[in-house]
């Protein structure tokens, strides 16, 4: 049976890939992915065949992977972070319905939430949720409802895709929504370029976060009512008792 690995490569640094991910890429004949992600791994897997597609060509990328696997090649489809968290795993299963003779194996990786949390300190120790601010695939009304619900329930909130050229004010809008239920003094943090050159972290209040400039390579963390700033690190206690 033909085989495709769907591999989460983590934030981008080789030493933040799992051993299992490295083994899968070493076993593969072909490595396929979004151009930016292929560029991150190319130097470590010399001799492999690399194929890329640009952003918004995700279905084409999946079809390409299955077509290569049908030729008898072992294929890795790579995603940044974790393949099952805003990654390609779901779409690969959907497209894979048309390729019953190809076996999929999903290999997890370090997603931006956990990679960024380690840089900031310990913001995700209690209940948290991930929300993407990109309205490319999700209507803004739904994103807005999720932000309000998460804020009202006092979740720590991790925001992916907080800004882009077309969505410059989305983080500002998200902060305004969350401040309906969260204090403006809520401890927050941002991490840019996690585990890559230029990695940069900041800890601040929710009110300060509202006016902070971020981009698509920044992950944003909004604390719960118990989250503290301990010597410049963002720390959420494990529970609400005796805090």
Word description of this protein:
With about 240 residues, this protein is an alpha/beta fold. Helix content is about 30%, strand content about 25%. It has helices at about 20-25, 35-40, 60-70, 90-95, 110-120, 140-150, 170-180, 205-210; strands spanning about 1-10, 30-35, 50-55, 75-80, 100-105, 120, 130, 155-160, 185-190, 200-205, 220, 230, 235. β9 (about 185-190) and β10 form a beta hairpin. The model has no long low-confidence stretch (mean pLDDT about 95).
Strand order, biggest sheet? 3-2-4-1-5
Helix and strand run: EHEHEHEHEHEEHEHEEHEEE
Total number of strands: 13
Percent strand equals 25-35%
Question: What class do helices, strands and sheet pairing give?
Answer: alpha/beta
What gap, in angstroms, lies between the N and C termini?
55 Å
Shape: elongated
* Gyration radius from CA atoms, angstroms: 19 Å
Q: What percent of the residues sit in helical stretches (DSSP H or I)?
A: 25-40%
Low-confidence stretches: none
Give average pLDDT, whole number.
Answer: 94
Biggest sheet descriptor: 5 strands, parallel
The DSSP helix count reads 8
């Amino acid at each position: 049976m033909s085989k495709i690995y769907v591999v989460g490569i983590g934030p981008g640094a080789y030493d933040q890939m799992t051993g299992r991910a490295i083994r899968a890429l070493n076993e593969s004949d072909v490595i396929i992915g979004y151009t930016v992600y292929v560029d991150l791994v190319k130097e470590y897997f010399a001799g492999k065949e690399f194929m890329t597609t640009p952003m918004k060509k995700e279905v084409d990328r999946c079809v390409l992977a299955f077509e290569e696997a049908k030729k008898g090649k072992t294929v890795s489809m790579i995603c940044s972070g974790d393949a099952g968290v805003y990654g390609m795993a779901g779409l690969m299963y959907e497209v894979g319905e048309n390729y019953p003779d190809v076996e999929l194996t999903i290999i997890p990786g370090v997603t931006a939430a956990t990679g960024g949390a380690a840089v900031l300190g310990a913001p995700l120790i209690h209940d948290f949720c991930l929300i993407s601010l990109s309205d490319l695939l999700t209507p803004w009304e739904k994103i807005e409802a999720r932000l309000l619900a998460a804020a009202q329930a006092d979740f720590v909130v991790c925001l992916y895709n907080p800004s882009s050229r077309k969505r410059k004010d989305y983080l500002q809008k998200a902060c305004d929504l969350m401040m309906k239920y969260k204090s403006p003094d809520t401890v927050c943090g941002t991490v840019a370029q996690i585990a890559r050159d230029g990695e940069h972290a900041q800890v601040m209040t929710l009110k300060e976060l509202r006016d902070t400039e971020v981009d698509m390579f920044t992950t944003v963390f909004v604390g719960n009512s118990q989250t503290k700033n301990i010597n410049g690190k963002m720390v959420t206690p494990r529970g609400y008792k005796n805090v």
